[in-house]
Amino acid sequence: MNISEICIKRPVLALVLSLVLVVVGIMGFNDLNTRFFPKFEQNVINISTAYPGASAKLVESSITTPLEEGISGVQGIDTIISQSFQGESDIKLTLDYGVNVYEVANQIRDKVEQARVQLPTNINAPVVQVGWGNMELMDVGFTAPNENPKAIRDYLERNVIDQIEQIPGIADVEVAGANQYAMRIWLDPQKMAARGLSVNDVQMAIQNSNVELPAGEIKGSSINYPITAETKLNTADQFNNIIVKNDNGQVIRIKDIGQAQLGDDSADQSIVTLDGQPGVLLSINNATDANPLDAAKNVNHFLNQIRPHLPNGMKIVPSFDISAYMHGSIHEVYISIGIAILCVILVIFLFLGRLRTVAIPIATIPVCLIASFGAMYLLGFSINVITLLALVLSIGLVVDDAIVMLENIYRHIENGEKPLIAAIKGSKEITFPVIAMTITLAAVYAPIGLMQNQAANIFRSFAFTLAGAVLISGFVALTLSPMMCSRFLKAQGGEPKGYSRIIETIYERMAQGYQKILAAILNKRILVVFAAVLIAVGGFFLAKNIPMAFVPQEDMGFVIAAVSTSSGSSINTINRGLEQVASIFKQAPAVASVVTVADTNAKAFDSVFAMLKPFKDRKQSASQVADVINQKIKQIPGLNAAAFAPSFGGSMQHQLEFYLMGDTYSDLYAVSQKLINQLGNYPGLRVIQSNMRFDSQQYNMTVNRDIAGQLQVNIKDIDNTMAALYGGSKISTFDANGKTYNVYLQAQENDLHSLASINKFYVNNAQNKLIPLSNLISIKPILSQVVLPHYNRLRAAQMSAQLAPGYNLGTVVNYLQTELPQLLPANVKYAFTGQAHDLLTSNNSMGLIFLLAMVFIYLVLAAQFESFIDPFIILLAVPLSIVGAMASLKLIGGTLNIYTDIGLVTLIGLVSKHGILITQFANRLQKEGLAMREALLKAASIRLRPILMTTAAMVFGALPLLFSSGGSAQSRHQIGIVIIGGLIFGTFFSLVVVPVAYSYVYKFKLFLKRFKTTDEMSLSGK
């Protein structure tokens, strides 16, 4: 007695088993977290070290290189990418997937600590963080017509930014549009020299005057009262009145040798405009392991709370919110689930024609879907677009086993058996195919568990959710479905009437027609073999012509324009270029708002950011808007800019990135400039750039150590003086209204623009005499780099570009892989980063996954059929279904990406189900005594209806994906067309190729039988 028979005889047990699944699913659903994408393993560690005032070259040699050498022996590191800027070193470590990032981070911290002895003593301590590269969650602008941006920023620093950073899930907040306040002590070197003062004298005076220390306490009889000396300075006037020197009663104050003034905290400048209005922009970054939907919800709640309490005239200007796109995408998938359920119900009714009959497979949909949430919870997944996409496809799948069970039992009833007996017999006959089909489809995803990369992380959530739904549907088909058949179906009482009669007539004619066609095909088998080979070969060449991408190009509701200027360009020059692009955006009817961000910082990205109107309020996609903008940008002479619609997970700055590695930066500069010119002839790329640019005017100041020694001047005092006067040294802090600001010492602004001013500066020697700096140093103007990159400890140049309209990442990467080896010298290597790197690694892994999926499913079928030959027959239709999928994908102009890869692997399991039904039934009929040809024709014609029904259910279940809109629509379109096109082709070829292959293999089976012993024949029942 099998499980189906037990459930038929004990209907309450069958119902309870399904109710248990539903209860577990509801409990799991309540505890599941909703997010946009599956939670990824963190595999990035960042090491950041500040060295104020140091040049990029000094940062590279004294910080970046020693740290890279120190951490190079740590196991589990895939790539090391570093960038040395003026005053800062950033090292990004990408780990191998599967490595425990926190264990490696602890090892990195130990190595960094060991390397500290090699680093300069006046640096800030290196900071090691896990999960660098946090996702930008939203941009929020603030404007105030009556306030300058600096005042706006000061208000935000005091009242808003710190509170946002305390919100769970928020990593940090970056500010653009204004600098923080700082106290700037501008020194006049000539006045200092006239009074015999050096920079060290001024610095010591300020530091000694600006302190706040406990002065003791007054002890009372019962209470002690602490005393604090209020000596901390707060205003520019107080700093101006600091006494630097008292020379025989002549008091010299700061205001006598310069001026203290409230100014900017940084020499770098930034301008932000929000729809033309100056303001301040907060870029709020989501922590790598946090849920962006929850974080965005909390941030928006906070902003709504503070909005009524903002200063008079200050407004919050929402600029960008990725969570809106995420919510829209998830909502669209839920809509697709609802439509898919209706489509599948309609298909089942059209095929069966009776409501009582239709109720049986339909009942499996809510049971399996709800229970799937329980499986997702147990697997540690979340509700996201990937797992919901799996549930959309599962709607057509979960009814498959129930349909097969129902159809087989219904056939027995048509033959005159009572429903109870028909249910027992029919379920017994179909138990093996149901188990085989269920395990087969689940087994196709088994290789995913063996893969370790970003694509596998995405794929795993989809695959295991869908596999869980299929396994649950198999269980329900063997328990609830036969029980319902025994209770809901009625004994055959004469000829069917009405719509049922029409359906039965159509099916009988189709079965008869198919049987005749198949009989004719079996007589011309060689033509089928020839056609199948021809189609498979054609499919191979077709696949070669389909472009590749890591993810489809989605419409995320915004467009970015990158504007390139030369290093050292003034803030006004940068802003003028941005304003030109912004004016073009404002003319586009699809654009809702425009933000420009100009910044002189070498790490900053000068850009125009355009938010588009909601999908329903515009006719153009983000890519189409970008194409129109680019056409107009070309008409502006001298403007080096390009607009593009970013892909989710891709760079917000460049669509293509790769590194060149060589021996020297001068060689890399020459190679990169030559490459820019050569690649400029390729129509697929625009705005090709290199960060290796020798266009930063700098001055190399060299200390004459011999003269310094003779004059008894300390080298460190020379360095400190130069750093203070030209670099602006932070020497102290001051408090104002509860907030702490920095104090900087610097030469007056007029003296910062001319090298001749060096003649005005002096430094003390050991006898406290003033020695002119010009006697101690030599100055040489040079053109240098703003940033010095390394890739895997090799000196490198980062190349970047935008893609031209009509070109995708896969096509461009293929071109570069062909051309770069020919264009680059032998001593220069290259490596892709960003989505280009993800594309290449995912392609390599997906090819292996596809191969392993075929191997796994073959082995599972071999074990189930106790044959190595039958699985070969079943799987023959799979390559042909892939051809159908490729042709469909080509038809809509799609790409091969991780979503289509998911669909292709899923097709292996879907199409093999048809072969299982035909092969298993033909084998059984032969055991019952029918000849091979007769058994094959009968099995194929009898299994025609369940094959067509399951295919129609799956196709119509996937149809909503093909016609969906809104966020992530392209991803749904492309996986939908792969499933639909591949399944239609695969079903057709299963009905033709599988019988032909079965007939050919039959003779081979007869040949093998000759070598079986009598005992083996009796054990196998043959």
From TrEMBL:
Transmembrane regions: 12-29, 333-352, 385-409, 430-450, 462-480, 526-543, 846-865, 872-892, 944-963, 975-1002
Molecular function, one GO term: xenobiotic transmembrane transporter activity
Keywords: Cell inner membrane, Cell membrane, Membrane, Transmembrane, Transmembrane helix, Transport
Pfam families in the cross-refs: ACR_tran (PF00873)
Topology relative to the membrane: Multi-pass membrane protein
Gene3D superfamilies, alphabetized: Multidrug efflux transporter AcrB pore domain (3.30.70.1430), Multidrug efflux transporter AcrB pore domain like (3.30.70.1320), Multidrug efflux transporter AcrB TolC docking domain, DN and DC subdomains (3.30.2090.10), Multidrug efflux transporter AcrB transmembrane domain (1.20.1640.10)
Location, primary (coarse class): membrane
Cellular compartments annotated: Cell inner membrane
Any one annotated GO CC term: plasma membrane
Protein name: Acriflavin resistance plasma membrane protein
Lineage: Bacteria, Pseudomonadati, Pseudomonadota, Gammaproteobacteria, Legionellales
